[in-house]
Amino acid sequence: MTGRPVDVLDGVGLAGWYSRSADALATACAGIDALNVFPVADGDTGTNMLLTMQAAARAAATAVAAGGDVAEVAQAAAAGSLVAARGSSGVILSRYLYGVAAGLGPVWPGRGPDVAAALTSASEAAYAALADPVEGTILSVARAAAKAARDADPVDVRQVVGAAVAAARQELARTVGQLPALSAAGVVDAGGQGLVVVLDALADTLAGVAVPPAPDIAVARPSQMSAAATFAYEVQYLLDAPADALPPLRARLAALGDAVAIVAGSDVHNVHVHVDDIGAAIEAALDLGQPRRITVTRFADQAAASRVVVLTPTGGLADLFRGAGAIAVEVGDDESAVVSALTAAVCAPGARSAVVLPNARAFRNVADTAAAAARAAGLSATVVPTRSVIQGLAALAVHDPGRRADDDAVAMSAAAAATRYAEVSRATFDALTSAGPCRAGDVLGHIDDDVATIGDDVASVARELIDRMLIGGGELVTIVVGADADASLGPQLEDYVRATRPAVETVVHLGGQPTYPVMVGVE
Prior knowledge:
Blueprint: H1 11-35, H2 45-65, H3 70-84, H4 87-104, H5 112-129, H6 138-151, H7 157-175, H8 180-185, H9 190-207, E1 233-240, H10 246-256, E2 258-264, E3 268-275, H11 278-286, E4 290-298, H12 299-302, E5 307-313, H13 316-323, E6 327-331, H14 335-347, E7 353-357, H15 364-376, E8 380-383, H16 389-397, H17 405-417, E9 420-426, E10 431-433, E11 436-438, E12 443-447, E13 450-455, H18 458-470, E14 476-481, H19 489-500, E15 505-510, E16 518-522
Parallel strand pairs: 5-6, 5-7, 7-8, 14-15
Antiparallel strand pairs: 1-3, 1-4, 2-3, 9-12, 9-16, 10-11, 12-13, 14-16
Helix pairs in contact: 1-2, 1-3, 1-9, 1-14, 2-3, 2-4, 3-4, 4-5, 5-6, 5-7, 6-7, 6-9, 7-9, 10-11, 14-15, 16-17, 18-19
């Protein structure tokens, strides 16, 4: 997308920067992943930065839509990135965005000195996130960009940012000789490359130019991916705790492992560490606050495991799939961006094979395109033709990364095919459906993509769909509650199934999906 050059970066412009950064990272993601040899050669730096920036962009767009000023947009983006941050690169990027927000102040006209102050604050925040900062990484790139911004023309914002980008690129080139792992592989730092992409996006936002194509990145060959992990596991969790709990937690984690990184929010914090003792890393936080959404990755498995990549609507469904071990690519309005992000996720190094779940008929071609790109890159890639989110959840439930790729795809396909799915929506206009005429505002019940019933309220239509699908039998009913549904809907439907069919198991998820207040699956 092309726009007009701007002299002042306001809230809309800041949101535009974050959106453009997410698009650019989606394009560059696979190349950045391939650079990833430090601190662990696990091939996910680009992916983690992309997921973090996508969350920031969504939160910023929401704040703009609500009429937020530049400070509110910046704070919303930072908070959104905290919850979504994955891996050390995602945590550092989230902390960088917090620094941008802190450097803006309550009112920010977005001229040259303001941008320089924001980039300086961002660099300082990124350093502060780590218990043991290492030069020759994204940190060095951030600091060089900030210094150049401060030394540039104090008025013209485009000159300030241009100087920051030029300095960032020069510092990035120097990283190849600063760390043994980078020197051995002959590559620049992956996180530093990602930050250059983000700063390029800022310059392009100010200049009003289109998102650039993927940069020419010198990637590490498989034989060069030799940097071994000092510790066996990556542990990450959100922590509900007061801010004064973070210094002792940082000290405890530093004594247990390395790569300690913490993004401090107002009342929830994102904690990351590499350790050998998983339990100790979690127990370190127990007397300080409440850890939740705990994820553990064994580096030895990460290098060889097969991956599942899914397409999902925006909202909580993506987190639902990620919690089940999949890589979720959220579907937006720009189909070309979806294709780029999905292809990058499927083709990223670190796995021997990939299974792609389109989760909608409309995205089968997108999934096929990404799988074809993976096969062209020498990976094994299979599309399991899931036609709904419900079928995607059923397929993922039987995924076994230790199984032969072909056998795993067969098992997932069988689980998806054995799952009938239904969705409840509201009619947006008068129409003639397969269940008869409907008027705008009517509640529609779809079974396997056809309108099966029309009613007045969501709960009664959902109950009728459940009854119809269970006529032929079923062992498990899955209920996914959407963003617009009443909070009591899930428990009500669970109670209904338990009362009418006590032998049938019921699982309820808070999916947060738009459009469909409830989705139902029967296996």
